[in-house]
Amino acid sequence: MLANFIPLFDFKNGAFIMIVVFGLVIAGLVGAVWLMMNQKPKK
Predict the structure, then answer these.
(1) 12 pLDDT band (50/70/90 cuts)?
(2) How many whole angstroms from its chain centre is CA 31?
């Protein structure tokens, strides 16, 4: 999959794509942890 992006990878597009991808990944991880914490039954 990355091999397809290498010809299109320059500094401007690459930096923007990486920021978007990392932002989505971080948001997904935070959301998953938050949901797991809220789903624990309160004792």
Answers:
(1) low
(2) 11
